[in-house]
């Protein structure tokens, strides 16, 4: 029940008249029922403790739904409103990507320029990395040890002592914040401005984004603090700078800036949509151009316990924005439910995250013990968690893999292939774990199965080709 809370709707400069007179093809009565279902979706999500934050839905350039539900910090004493600014995680990487293209269109750089042209103090490897590689996350620059990094100057010094790349630039994809870091330093060298000043003065302010704040500290007003389910609040420090917090409406403005090509041309936007391969991310996350129209754009971001998701689908005429300061790893599920509701279709019931609720225990459990916990929880609380989704155990497997507990990851991934035997993605994950373990034979065996089940899996294609050469 939500009788003890208020789901707040911020007065918006575009009248709520649009809610009633939306141009939805489903018609007036159906549209009102759909919008009411969005209220129900959010209320249930709040009751279950799986969503606190903002939801905005726009149709054909007009906001038809906007709600905020939640709290400004871990004390849960002050209600969140849409005026509060939240970090949007990796979606902020769009700003440096667009800034690079602005400079390109001004003739101040080429995407085929090498990093060394602008950052000559870096070692010789900078002569081999093109700006294009930074935008496509194919530079080969190693990740920094972020937990030991104390700001931009420290990270630049870290890179000065890097002697070798992880791979030859342009040959592999590796999502890496150092690619973003180097883009921002190049923007500064060319413009003679700090990265934050360039974005504010050349991009945000001209587009009416006037309340965004970069790298906000603990005392900045109207910035929501992120926290977990144990009411532990995150600090407001980040290893490298350049991360803005935006409020809901200005986040939506940014989406419209991209869709209308206000800052860069369709040709430049098209270049930002070109991925290294398959579904690899680019500077815009994922984007699809048809002619001179950005027909699809999606990007998700996480920073500590902040999460955000932007989905713009021109074919449907719909843009959906979700922002939260209480990460539950479920914005994708909520987003799909929103699109189903708008289409008048059944939508998924929201569930709690198994990994969120039990991750603290995994540290002291083996893979087999974690499987026992999973099975017991599934028996006792079958309706509470998303046991019917393959991603539930897959997240657990990657938790162990990231912790270098490879044998435990293999145990979990193996079970998941049995639970979802028709999922190529599950075998792809198991293949990855065997590859990390060094068992190339088992890795190849599972990658082949993955590719047979899902021929579109580019990661499996590459690994099969690589392993067959050995």
UniProtKB/TrEMBL annotation:
What Gene3D superfamilies would the database entry show? DD-peptidase/beta-lactamase superfamily, Tetratricopeptide repeat domain
Domain of life, per lineage? Bacteria
Enumerate the InterPro entries for this protein.
Answer: AmpC-like (IPR050491), Beta-lactam-related (IPR001466), Beta-lactam/transpept-like (IPR012338), TPR-like_helical_dom_sf (IPR011990), TPR_rpt (IPR019734)
Which controlled-vocabulary keywords does the entry list? Answer: TPR repeat
Q: Which Pfam family, any one of them, does this sequence belong to?
A: Beta-lactamase
Q: Where are the TPR repeats?
A: 424-457
Domain named Beta-lactamase-related is located at 55-330
Q: Does the keyword Cell membrane apply?
A: no
Matching PANTHER family: BETA-LACTAMASE-RELATED DOMAIN-CONTAINING PROTEIN, D-ALANYL-D-ALANINE-CARBOXYPEPTIDASE/ENDOPEPTIDASE AMPH
* Protein name per its UniProtKB record: Beta-lactamase
